[in-house]
Amino acid sequence: MTQAQSSLEFIPPAYSPVIWNLAKGIIPFWLRYNHSIVRVEVDHAEELVHLYDQFQQGKMRFMMAFRHPSVIDPPCLAQLLWNQLPNLAQRQGISLRSPVHTHFIYDRGIPLWAGKRVGWGISKLGEHPFAVAQLIGWVCDQFGNYLLTDSFLWLLPLKERLMATMK
To answer: What values do phi and psi take at 129, rounded to 5?
Structure first.
């Protein structure tokens, strides 16, 4: 590459209940037939149900952070939250309001390698883009020479925590 690329255009979140319901219905079959995943399991699901219940009642704020080393992790989490969590709650005698939904953040570069359709779908699920390069630039500004002496991998586990403090 001999010249700099212009920055990526912002993709605004544009949540669509129709697209969410479609994705909710498709995801179990997509996981099964494209990835041979027939069941998503979670330890301590009762705690997650309780947290969502408290959140939906307005008794607390709730933020869930995770790293996903595989592209299949976000769809598995969607399956858990959209389909399995309401069923688990019902078995505990708790009615969660639909949609049981989250607003994820995702790397703005994903539509570059996954395609425009994926970018469109992610926005219709209400997801929020961020630019990893800007995050890395912010971290370098904050931690300066320390990062130059450490491994770049040091950044990766911190990405989720740093997003909370970035302005």
So the answer is: -80, 150
Q: Are 139 and 162 in contact (CB under 8 A)?
A: yes
Instruction: For residue 13, report the phi and psi dihedrals to the nearest 5 degrees.
Output: -65, 135
pLDDT tens profile 111-155: 888 888 988 998 999 888 887 666 666 656 665 544 444 444 344
DSSP 129: E
Domain assignment of residue 82, yes or no: yes
**Quick one: which of 78, 93, 91, 100 has its CA closest to 31?**
78
Q: Which domain holds residue 69?
A: 17-107
Can you give the C-alpha Rg of the chain in angstroms?
A: 18
88 touches 49 (CB < 8 A): yes
Q: What is the pLDDT of residues 76-118, one digit of tens each?
A: 889 999 999 999 999 999 999 988 888 788 888 888 888 889 8
**Total domain count, the chain:** 1
**Residue 4 placed within a domain:** no
